[in-house]
Amino acid sequence: MFDYGILLYPSANRVYADSSAALLRAELAVFGEALSTPPEEIGERQLGGVTYVTFSTARRLSEEDVALLSNLSALYALFELTDELLRPVGIAPLDRFGSDLLTIQKYPGKTNELFTKLLLNVTLLSTSDPVAFLRGPVHVLDPLCGRGTTLNQAMNYGLDATGFELDKRDFEAYEHFVKTWLRTKRIKHTAESGQLRHNKVKLGQRLELGFGLTKEQYKAGEVRRITYYNCDTVTAAELLKAGSVDAIVTDAPYGVQHGSHRSEDLSRSPRELLATAVPAWVRTLRPGGALGISWNTHVAKREELADILTGAGLGVRELPDFAHRVDQAILRDLLVARKP
Known about the structure:
By secondary structure, the protein is α+β, with helices and mostly antiparallel strands. The protein folds into two domains: 2-89, Alpha-Beta Plaits (2-Layer Sandwich); 100-338, 3-Layer(aba) Sandwich (Rossmann fold). It has eleven helices and 15 strands. Strands 6, 7, 8, 9, 10, 11, 12, 13, 14 and 15 form a ten-stranded mixed beta sheet that branches. A five-stranded antiparallel beta sheet has the order 2-3-1-4-5, with helices on one face. A hairpin with a 2-residue loop joins strand 2 (40-47) and strand 3 (50-57). Helix 10 (270-284) packs parallel to helix 11. It is globular. Keywords: Methyltransferase, Transferase. InterPro entries: SAM-dependent_MTases_sf. It comes from Amycolatopsis acidiphila. This is SAM-dependent methyltransferase.
């Protein structure tokens, strides 16, 4: 057997840091399904007073295995353990632009960027082609995208992404941030914004970005795209081609941020919103694509959300326990389902 230890990424959020080892163990179990040698005996171990997430494999991790594991949300460093000694294993994370794309924005209610990466990872790995995102761009949709944490993580992975958001302030904040960030980083890009119309009806605003992972790729026409629609999520889903999305990833509202209709009557619970919106979202999902959603278990039961997903024709996955406390009012968990 070959033994490995993962040094956890330091989190500025103390509450999330308290849960990070348990969340990484659960995430590693999902990653293990796509490895050539599945991890066994996943646990935690103190080495030199520092917590490591540890696991064993029957064969040494291949280069492809390490490339995949490099994208674990809370992985800071990977070591092979031999007689209490740590041998560093070189990692190659997919991140294209660095962490500041995800960490610069600070605002109340922001989903922790490490958890956003975890949810995206688990959803991508639940598709019919779990490592497709390592080979080339896949299309990610966040239909409740807020100020774009999921869009930024997809961008950092070099993926295409689309976001829907009803709140105009969130749209304007994201537009200002991402345009400024692209200019500051001198990333070759195009940015077009204006009114969003469909069948001669004004729905809201739109932002369309095209960017290159490198200057050379941009000049060669290899462009990644981020699209943000500032309008109702059900209406926006109608603007996308059926079967054009590989993965849907979203953090359901904990309070009153999103509504399923273009009105001022917003629901505190995600149940009504999801019951209305999920069928529209699923239409955009390709066969074999996956939908991952996190939510506050204090306002909706797992069985209720699972019923909504299965009612829309998805198969809910059996996953390790990802439930963790965010604060006194929020106990967050996640569900992932795949389209046949």
